[in-house]
Amino acid sequence: MCGIIGCTGRCEAAEVLTKGLRRLEYRGYDSAGVAVVDGDSMAIVKRAGRVDSIEPYVRALRGSTGIAHTRWATHGKVTDENAHPHASCDGRIAVVHNGIIENYRELREELEARGHRFRSDTDSEVIAHMLEDALRSFEDPLQALLAVCRELRGSYAFLAAGPALGDALLAARKDSPLVVGLAKGAVYASSDVYAFIEWTDDAYFLENGSVAVLRPGEVRAALLDGTPLEVRPVKVAFEMSEPDAGAYAHHTFREIMEQPEVVARALAPRPEVDEAARAISEASQVFAVGAGTSYHAALVARYVFADVAGLDVQPVLASEHGLFLRWMGPGSVVLAISQSGETADVLEAVRAAKSRGARIISVVNVPHSSLEREGDLSVNVRAGPEVGVAATKSFTAQLATLSMIALRMAGRPLPDPERARRLVSEALRLEPAARELGNRLKGSDDLYLVGRGVHYPLALEGALKVKELAYVHAEGLAAGELKHGTLAMIEDGTPVVLINPGDDTHSDTASNGEEMKARGAFIIGISDVESDLYDVHLRIPEARGVELPIVEAIPLQLLAYHLALARGAEIDRPRNLAKSVTVK
Ligand code: AGP
To answer: Of the listed 2, 7, 11, 149, which one is catalytic?
Structure first.
């Protein structure tokens, strides 16, 4: 995964790079590093840990050309040596890389045979050594860069800087995002616009499979076969998120609490929703592709489209799309659901489906993301920047947006955004009860979450939130499946969250709850209906139809948050994870 940023020209590299790294930490936060060029010397500061750990050292660096990296480890442990940038043997080139170089072992062997000495275990370091050699063979850095890229297999977005390049930066991308920002007298490049938006809103999205030499006021770009590219920047608009969590203890908590506004905004009618509804009604087959939480939104969409529009939508786990490709041809529509719009598995599925003739409708949150740009049509879910690694407000915004598309398609009235705002606000009043429950359950090793029908994907989503935030083993189950095996796990005091609203699933789910209670389970009911089945009742407001899954998500998120808090887990950046998963 990882995030990269570079700048050159009329700018203070140390400031641009540290600010940029903070904005890129959602892509990985195992380690961070910076290289700043000052005339004929280059300083590299890098360390395992967060951006905070290098910031004081970086602030002291002088120079206006530099590159930086925030890492999510793929090859090589989380150590100072494996942190980027990686330098060439002569120390005149440094590289930051996002992606995976699949043939790095062969390349490394060849380079070592030629006398290159490696300092890290990463796949990325080969690029620095290859550039060192290539820059000796080619006078034109663009040709050197092309020669290196032609040898690389895998996915990459990388930037190179160093005394060997003067004030130039080298940039290359294949299957990982890279965007160039153009300003008066300065040029920037990063994994996303968000990292440099403070400095310029003129962006040039590098084409997939292309390279560029960036100099202040000049960008030369070419495809990997050497064909020159015309550089046409576009204006980008990007909402800047609060750099801190404001009055809240964590971004995740702020994002949970923002949901009344988010859901109301997502439910506002807009032309893209109508267009998507039209495209879907003309489709021979409809798929909904996503990963993690976004896949859970796809599962909810299956129930919602079936219920309100009588349409069969096939949910597809992005990483398992291969099985479904044979049906993703002309006439079919793929709803590609993603908060970040950069998830590698989703992009891969979308590209494969598109090449077979399927129409892609992206349902994304991050504007200008790869998915938004690559879709035939894009519907933004309007959740606003989501900083916490756990998806919260983007999930409810996805549910709201997908429900609108389904209702539009069926020609049925849309939910009232003001009513939805009120319902979500009421559900948020469960916060003190969730806090108490979090404290009560903090010693539990397992948690089961159970639902039926459209509430089953909510059980899956609740379990994912508990795992990633609180590091507690949690399992989401279809209520009817319990007796087919998992019931054996229930013993005295086993906590079970029963998603049991008063709709047509109520009595069957309640019976399953009774079966667990008879075996000692501690039942936490999420319901708008009173029942003595529940040992603890998280009473949600009375919602109906498409509103229900949105409202149910709130107590599940609050419970996961408070369980994490009670256990002292790191909330905004859970261990081993990253906000945007840009590797397969
Ligand atoms: C959700 O809490 C997770 N952090 C994760 O599962 C996420 O939903 C998944 O990686 C997909 O991301 P996307 O929505 O940005 O594509």
So the answer is: 2
